[in-house]
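Table S4 entry, Molybdenum cofactor biosysynthesis protein.
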Amino acid sequence: MGVVQAVNVAVVRTGDWTGRVGRTGIDKRPVEHAVRFEPTGVRGDVVCDTKHHGAWYQAAYAFDVEELRYWSAVLRKELVPGNAGENLTLAGCDSTSAVIGERWRVGGAVLRVTGPRTPCRVFAGFWGVKSLVKRFTEHGRTGVYLAVEEPGEVAAGDTVEVLSRPSHGVRVDELFAFQMRGRQELAEHVARGVADLPEPWREDVARKVRATVAVGTR
């Protein structure tokens, strides 16, 4: 499916752009050694805003190097592995097209795709682009959050192997488009994948699906 180009862990940053917590671990840097991925997170990484990050279904975040290149060209600034706040920079993977609940073997770990990343003001502040939340949402290529089903070590150069893929076929980008881009025509399709979402997201998406379908049947 693809390969790990870099494994990244946080350097804690402070500043006016870091939001209500006043510090953030979004600035992640590649490491040369293998890193252990555990159900509670990536060893050596730091999560500062635990209200919005760091749950078991956000144990790790993956983003494609091709998307870093895309934004480098659009914004005319060099973005390198870790700059999207990702623990895994993947090459040749197209992670945002993964199916919700899809399971990957990456190095010695088994990871499960749980959902899309939602851009925030801290992300925009880190990149120094005020319009980034809107532009990133419109582009819709978010990367994926991952749960760790089987802990293990992951290093640059490890392959990404798909172990299983749910038959409902609801992709990460489709869920994001329904939730964040107003694609109401995706409601019934997205509903098929609700059971594979982590519980906090499941309830929110199911509620929105019901409301959308109800409006459509009036």
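The radius of gyration is 17 Å.
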